[in-house]
Structure formats: C-alpha cells, structure tokens
Amino acid sequence: MSQTAPAVSAAPTATEAEAPPEREVGMPVMLVLALIVGIIAGLGAIFFKYLIALIYNFSFYGIVSPFLDPNSYGPPSPWGPAIILVPIIGGLIVVFLVRQFAPEAKGHGVPEVMYAIYHQSGNVRGIVAVVKAFASAISIGTGASVGREGPIIQIGSSFGSTFARLIGLVQHQKITLLSAGAGAGIAATFNTPLGGVLFASEVLLPEVSTRTFLPVVVATATSTYVYRLAMGIESAFLVPLGGLPQGAVNGAELLLAAFLGVVMGIAAWAFVKLLAKSEDVFEDSKLNPYVQNIIGMTIVGVTGYVFFLTSGHYHVYSVGYSTIQDILDGGNTSAILLLVLFAGKLLATCISLGAGASGGIFSPSLFMGATLGGAVGILGNQLLPGFDLAPETFAIIGMGAMVGGATSAAMTAIVMIFEMTRDYQIILPLVVAVAISIGVRRSLTVADIYTIKLRSRGRPIPTDRTTNMFLVQPVASVMARDFKIMPNDMRVVDALKEVDPEHTRVVLTDGTRITGFVRFLTIPYQADRYAGQTLGDIGSNEFIIAGANSILNTVMTRMSRRNRSYAIVVRDQRGVPRPEDIVGVIGREEIARAAVRNHYG
Question: Which one in 47, 97, 288, 536 has a CA-CA gap of 20 to 30 Å to 133?
Fold first, then answer.
C-alpha cells in the first residue's frame, strides 16, 4: 500500500457531506406515529370483531345483531340441512371481492405481509385493509374454517405501511410501522400485548433493535388499551379457578408434555404440508375460481353439518373458540371424539384456504392443538392413573405446541398461550412441548406455515435470522487493504504500470481531497483508444466515507440510502477526511465475501 498525495486540509466535497435521508424521523416522532398506528389497530380489531358477529348472526340465524359470544355454543341454525349452503354463498362473495379489488387478501395473510417486507420494500396497498376486513369477516362469519389473527395482521400492516408512505418515511421506518401495525392488530385481537410484540419481533421484523422494538411496544400497548376500554380485560379463554392441578410439576407431566411435543411436531408438519398441497391442488386444477370455491366450501359445509348430526355442534365452522373453551371446561372427554375433531378441523382449514377463503391459521392451530392435546391427556391419564394428569392441562399445552410448531414462533406461542389462559402453572411443560414440537417439525421440513408459500413462489425469506449477524462485523475485518492512492491527472496508461488491475483498488485525490475511485476490471478500457485518458476521466464518485470504528450494517445502510456502490474507510471520520487517513475500501465483493464467510464459517 502506498500514498502519493500530500496531507493538506480542505473543505469536504458533496460526496463526503452525507445529508440525512429524506423523511427519516427521530425516535420521538416514530413513537408518536406508532401510537397512532396502535389506536387505529385497536379500533380496527373492535370493528372487525363486531363485523364478524353481525355476519355470523345473519348467516346462521337470520338476525341482525353485532353481539356474539364466540366461546359459547350457539343454538342450532333454523336453516337445517341448508346450513351447508352458507359457507358456499359466503365463499362466492369472498372470491368476488378478492379477485376484483385485492388479490393479496386471499389466504391467511401473513405470507403476504412477509413478502411485502422482504421483496416489496415494505409496501402494502391501503385497499388491502378494507378488502381483507370484509372478505375475512364474511369467510369467518359464514363458517369457513379460518381465524381472525391473519386478517387483523394484514389489516394493521396495511395501515402502518400506507401511513408511512403518505408521510414519506424511509424504508426501514416504513417496515417498522408495518410490523407495529401487525403486532398491534394481533395484540388487540387476542388481548395479548406481549404476544403481539413477540409476534412482530419473531415473525416479521428483519432487525430487532431499539429503533424497531420501541415503536412495536408502543403500538401493541396502545392497541390493547384501546381494545380493553371497549371490550374488557378478560382473556381470550377462561381457565376455571382450581380447575387445573396446582403446585410443582410432576415428572410424569413433563414426560407426557415431551411426548405431546413430538406428536404436535408431526401434526404441525402435516398441517404445513397439507395446506400447501391443498392450495396447489386448487390452483393447478385450472377450474374457475368460483367453481373451486363451490367444491371446497361444499366439503366444509357438509363436514360441519355431519358434526352437528353426530355431536350436536357444528365444531369445524368458523374460529371454533366454543369447542376450545368446552375442552378447557372439561367437556368433550372422549379421546376418539377429540381425535376426530382434530382431523375434521385440519381438513376443513386446508380446504377452506385452498378454495379461496380469507382468514388466518392461528385459531385453527389453537383448535387442533386443544383437541389433539386433550386426547393425549385423556390417554395419558388412563395409562398413568396415579399421577393426576388433567386433560385440560394438555389441551392448553397442545395449543401452544401446535402454534409454535406450525409458525416457528416459539416465544410468541408460549407467551400468548399464557396471556390467553392466565395460567402460570402451565409454563414449564408448555416450554418443553413447544421446543420439541418446533424441533420435530423442522427436522421434517424447514419451511413453516408462513414461509412454505413464499418458497413455492420462488421468493423465500431467511429461515434463520442469525444469518444477518455478519452485519455486526467491524468494518476493519471486512474491508480490502490492497489499495493505492493516485492523483486525478495521472494518465491511465501510467497507472496500469504501477498497479495490478485485477486486485488493486485505486483511490483518487486532487492533491488535497478524496475525489473518487477506480475499479479497472469494471471499465472497458482499450489502450489504443483511451491512451490519453486520465484516472479522473474514468473514475467514479459514487462512494461514501466510513469510519474504521463502524460496523458493516451502518456502512451498508448508508450505501443503500445514497445508492452508492463503494465505501472508503478512514481512521477517524471526525473532521475532513484526508488521503493519508485511508485504511481500506469496501465494495460489493467485500460485502459478499463477508456474508459467505459468516454463513459457511
């Protein structure tokens, strides 16, 4: 490495004086914006719940009322066998809305939000919130086997993204508000503020730091507060006081919880694969979308009516909270019935979403976890009668293990189940079951219920967020040190005699300032034609100045915001950068090499 320029002070060039990106607001402003997003998400969750109730009451009973207790079985529908037509009619309306106004509103929503974050710069159209709200409310209210969380996540993220675009925020702040809206939506829907924060952090945010975490916390806390003001503080499911065993967890309970984790991991794998297969089968059928819906929702309608004829309740229709609550109350004590309910819900959910319904998979996962967990608890209690194993306990554990196994969101599953049941005694076996469930499912398939759809589209996202750890490397460990400083007015032919054009980077100076750089291999140089050119003629000023004490994430962020392809690293970024302060350079090759080295060791 050599230096050819003298050290003389000078004013910084426009290249060095890096202005802050347009509309990047400070943390206080971001928190205010997150507060607004949280208020809207809370109000949206309230409106969505009443809209579902209104449609459900009208569809099943022919009455107009916005009040519905989803945790209680309703009376039989007066429509009799004609109830089979309700999911079909509702599905046809949903297909029309989605096809005409927002194709993104089809399905369970979260993959579309993740796709927007990683492949569309955080842009979610505002119309999606409106269409998703009505399409999902119709799907749920007319009996499709889908849940509320996917729609409210997409609704909240749509508002957050649209709000950020309207005020012109930079990309990372737009994604932060998008994630805050999604977390706020799920927090209000299930009355689980901690769960909402963890969902946004585990599933959506590409980066978890103070600048992203705090806005998400503000939004989720605000949305939960707004929801509780209107709807009360009750948890999503009520665990009867004294209904579950208290005291220390016994060894038999932990062992059965571990076994349940294995069972749930296999069940989660089956759910992931069957849902993906169902969506593929309907899409590959080449049938008209309306015909697809009629076929799929007829199966769902018949399944629900058969359950009504054999057990007295429709069970697999809609979110299924009443069945979950009944299991937690000690009802449905037949292991065979619970296993049949699991299979029925699995079939109904996969077909509903494959046929074009709009709704989430979180609630069906809770249902399947409660039924399969309850069945394992009943069988375990029969095999080990002296250990006081309560089926209700394993229903709760199964809920968390199924959600965790299907979504890969371990902390979200554990914390949300605790917040939804308020039962602290369940934490230890729940942690064991969730961890094992995720491990088993990942051993069978890396993709989860959210990412498998993106993989099939050829738009995968990182399955292991620690792959981004290369971004925290110090610049000094990444930069190239084989550079040479040369004057602008030096002839190209003379420069080529002093450097290895294949490996050596050239930094340009006018004698007092850093003015540009040259990468010879990127220039179609022809000696006979350009013999009179100087380095300044072929150089580029598309660079930034970075301090040697920076981390790679900071440098890459600045390069991206200013659309630069090169960083010149100096010892100390304070004051005017001088040629003799240069210690290295970073280009695309160095960044790629750092990423590969981090991933493959």
Answer: 288
Per-residue pLDDT, averaged over 522-547, amounts to 75
Tokens of residue 396, six digits: 């709760």
Mean per-residue pLDDT, 558-582 = 82
The pair of three-digit structure tokens given for residue 30, joined into one six-digit string: 């971001």
Residue 558, classified by CB atoms within 10 Å of its CB into exposed (0-12), middle (13-18) or buried (19+), is: middle
| Beta carbons within 8 Å of 406's beta carbon, 6+ residues apart | 268, 271, 272, 361, 365, 441, 448, 449
Beta carbons of 154 and 112 less than 8 angstroms apart? yes
Contacts of 350 (CB under 8 A, 6+ apart): 271, 274, 275, 277, 278
How many other CB atoms sit within 10 Å of the CB of residue 254?
14
120 CB contacts (<8 Å, ≥6 apart)?
none
The pLDDT of residue 7 is: 37
**What are the distances in angstroms from CA 601 to CA 368, 471, 477, 592?**
40, 15, 14, 14
Matching residue, tokens 């409310």 = 137
Backbone angles phi, psi at 21, to 5 degrees: -60, 150
CA dist list (Å): 143 to 39, 83, 85, 532: 29, 9, 10, 78
What is the predicted pLDDT for the residue at 11?
A: 38
- β-strand partners of 422: none
Amino acid at 504: T
DSSP 340-380: HHHHHHHHHHHHHHHTT-B-BSHHHHHHHHHHHHHHHHHHH
Bridge partners of 567? Answer: 544, 586
Helices (H), 355-505: 362-383, 391-407, 410-421, 427-444, 451-456, 492-496
pLDDT in tens, 264-276: 999 999 999 999 9
Please tell me which residue, 332 or 56, carries the higher pLDDT value.
56
Cβ count near 513 (within 10 Å): 22
Distance of CA 154 to CAs 141, 185, 228, Å? 18, 8, 21
Percent of the chain topping pLDDT 90: 47
Average pLDDT over residues 453-473: 62
Contacts of 564 (CB under 8 A, 6+ apart): 542, 543, 544, 558
Q: Which long-range contacts (CB under 8 A, 24 or more apart) does 95-98 make?
A: 95/289, 95/290, 95/293, 95/356, 97/131, 97/134, 97/135, 97/138, 98/131, 98/135, 98/356, 98/358
Chain segment 96-120, per-residue pLDDT in tens:
999 999 887 787 788 888 888 887 8
Structure tokens at 482: 């084989």
* Residue 301, pLDDT above cutoff 70: yes
- The predicted pLDDT at position 37 comes to 95
CB 596 within 8 A of CB 557: no
